[in-house]
Write a structure and sequence with these properties.
Helix 1 packs parallel to helix 7 (about 155-170) and helix 3 (about 65-80) packs across helix 18 (about 440-455). By secondary structure, the chain is of the alpha/beta class. Helix content is about 40%, strand content about 20%. Residues about 1-15 have low confidence and may be disordered. The strands form four sheets. A six-stranded parallel sheet has the order 4-3-5-6-8-7, sandwiched between helices. The protein has a six-stranded parallel sheet with strand order 16-15-17-18-20-19, sandwiched between helices. Strands 11-10-12-13-14 form a five-stranded parallel sheet, with helices on both faces. The N and C termini lie far apart (about 70 Å). Strand 19, helix 22 and strand 20 form a beta-alpha-beta unit. It has three domains: about 25-185, Thiamin diphosphate (ThDP)-binding fold, Pyr/PP domains (Rossmann fold); about 210-360, Rossmann fold (3-Layer(aba) Sandwich), CATH 3.40.50; about 380-560, Thiamin diphosphate (ThDP)-binding fold, Pyr/PP domains (Rossmann fold). Keywords: Lyase, Magnesium, Metal-binding, Thiamine pyrophosphate. This is Oxalyl-CoA decarboxylase. Pfam families: TPP_enzyme_C (PF02775), TPP_enzyme_M (PF00205), TPP_enzyme_N (PF02776). Belongs to the TPP enzyme family.
């Protein structure tokens, strides 16, 4: 798209006509050329007209109340679509707000591009005190996969192309693109501008490992007595669902899905050992990591959580991830889909046979743990005040009736208990706090899932976690998105029954009627005090397909500090006064 401009002399006489364009138009044109159809952001100086033009040009602009939530939405869009989600922010403070999400996207390996306006370089570099002066490029470099700055309007197409390719190639991540206000406003010849744009071709080409590497991995699995496959969110991102399922079922190897890999195979699949996780990790002698990393979420592969003699096979697009915590006996560097297909093609019939004793051991432990959980759920059904598990099993039952619903989940107890209670049947339908355990992703992720897919979304939130992005309920209502937010409200961080030691509330205390909050924005609010009320409200809200919030009143005494990672939370000594 170009603008036609007639230049006139100071006296008002026509002196010539020329087709012109500017930096704002070139950014929009470059994004459209690369099939970007949604932008998440917050408008303001100097990017307001860019958002207006994007919307007028057919790109959907979703305007948020805070840049952090907009960035999280862009990251989730990247995870769901394998195209970089675009976050648009203003300079300095707005850029910094978005930077949290950009860093989180990089750690989580989600493709995302944050485009921010910035102050003029000649003022920033001499620290002359310009409006929102900041060297944003230098700040972003520490937290993103890459950071670029465009200095001329004719380089905007190049900058957008570089950002897109970098975000999705190899290990995906967040990329920062700095465009100063002067460049956005720069006017150049329209033909020169059009010629400067291009579409990125094959930004994430297939990578297949060497045959010898495949044979090494197959031999390890074939000789294992207690093999295990661990599926990470990288496996879900790869959209290699058929190849992963075929390999798992071909070999018969038990598998453990990480939280965002749930649904790659249905959670009730016969080979899933999610219910015997601790035993599987502690006893497995050969472990195949597929799009999963031996980071803190897997105890770094260390004993006693793991078998100290375990040998690891690792499927990862980034060779630098290998040997990061444990020796990798059989590295398979490549994209998940290509590696899994190559393994299928090279694995002979019956070449990998899982000993019956290992299967029986895992099955017995799974049955034992399922039985224990069933007793806890039964006890929670009638507990008053309502417990986390009472509300969650009501949510679980409704979601079973609606398997295509996306689930977003964050909090401490809300996250841990929902992950263990609610099964997934469909790939990439569970999004949660991820590698960093970041709170505040909830509303952004939910908005992106609704925008990118059009399907219903249920965001299961702890009341503390919800507070980080709760104002985005207004965004959900403004755009009429089919998002139902369920707040597990136990009136506190972790729990709400801590006693205060002063005239102020306890440090962990919270108090809110979230159902009244959404009513202020035109959505439907529900207040539920029993599992029956939770189920009824959720069914009604999903059937309506409109913004809704269910405030679930949970026993303030229910909850564990820091959820399943309380061992990471240092405790102070009790001081006698």
């Amino acid at each position: 798209m170009t603008i036609a401009s007639l230049r006139e002399s100071e006296a008002g006489g026509l002196v010539g006509a020329q087709k012109l364009t500017d930096g704002i138009h070139l950014v929009v044109d470059a994004l459209k050329l690369n099939e970007i159809d949604a932008i998440y952001g917050v408008v303001g100086i100097p990017i307001t007209d860019l958002a207006r033009l994007a919307q007028a040009s057919g790109i959907r602009f979703i305007g948020f109340r805070h840049e952090s939530a907009a960035g999280h939405a862009a990251a989730a869009a990247g995870f769901l679509t394998k195209k970089p989600g675009i976050c648009l922010t203003v300079s300095a403070p707005g850029f910094l707000n978005g930077l949290v999400a950009l860093a989180n996207a990089t750690v989580n390996c989600f493709p995302m591009v944050q485009i921010s306006g910035s102050s003029e370089r000649h003022l920033v570099d001499l620290q002359r005190g310009d409006y929102e002066e900041m060297d944003q490029l230098a700040a972003a470099r520490q937290f993103a996969k890459a950071a670029y700055r465009v200095q001329r309007a004719e380089d905007i197409g190049r900058g957008v192309a570089r950002a897109i390719r970098t975000a999705v190639s190899g290990r995906p991540g967040g990329v920062y693109l700095d465009i100063p206000a002067a460049v956005l406003g720069e006017v150049i010849d329209a033909d020169l501008g059009a010629a400067s744009l291009w579409r990125v071709v094959d930004p994430a080409p297939r990578q297949v490992p060497e045959p010898a590497a495949l044979d090494r991995a197959i031999e390890l699995l074939a000789t294992a007595q207690r093999p295990l496959v661990v599926l990470g969110k990288g496996a879900a991102y790869a959209q290699a669902d058929d190849q992963i399922r075929q390999f798992v079922e071909l070999t018969g190897v038990p598998y453990l899905p990480m939280s965002m890999a749930k649904g790659l195979l249905p959670d009730d699949h016969a080979q899933s050992v999610a219910s015997a996780r601790s035993l599987a990790l502690r006893r497995a002698d050969v472990v195949m990591l597929v799009g999963a990393r031996l980071n803190w979420l897997l105890g770094h592969g260390d004993a006693p959580q793991w078998n100290s003699d375990a040998k690891f096979i690792q499927v990862d697009i980034a060779s630098t991830e290998l040997d990061s915590n444990q020796p990798i006996a059989a590295p398979l560097v490549g994209d998940v889909g290509s590696v899994m297909q190559a393994l299928i093609d090279r694995t002979g019939p019956g070449q990998i046979a899982v000993p019956a004793q290992w299967r029986d051991e895992l099955s017995a432990r799974s049955a034992e743990n399922v039985g224990k959980m069933a007793k806890r759920l039964t006890a929670a059904e009638t507990a008053h005040p309502m417990k986390f598990l009472g509300a969650l099993q009501a949510i679980r039952d409704v979601l079973r009736e609606n398997p295509r619903t996306y689930v977003v989940n964050e909090g401490a107890n809300a996250l841990d208990l929902a992950r263990n209670t609610i099964g997934m049947q469909v790939p990439r339908h569970r999004l949660d706090s991820g590698t960093w355990g970041v709170m505040g992703i909830g509303m952004g992720y939910a908005i992106a899932a609704a925008v990118e897919t059009g399907d219903p979304v249920v965001a299961i939130e702890g009341d503390s976690a919800f507070g980080f992005s709760g104002m985005e309920i207004e965004t959900i209502c403004r755009y009429g998105l089919p998002v139902v937010t369920v707040v597990l409200n136990n009136s506190g961080v972790y729990r709400g029954d801590d006693a205060s030691t002063s005239g102020d509330p306890a440090p962990t205390a919270l108090r809110a009627r979230h159902d009244l909050m959404i009513a202020a924005f035109g959505g439907r609010g529900y207040r539920a005090t029993t599992p029956v009320e939770v189920a009824a409200a959720l069914r009604e809200a999903l059937a309506a397909g409109k913004p809704a919030l269910i405030d679930c009143v949970i026993d303030p005494a229910d909850g564990t500090e820091s959820g399943n990672i309380s061992h990471l939370n240092p405790k102070g000594i009790t001081v006698q006064r």
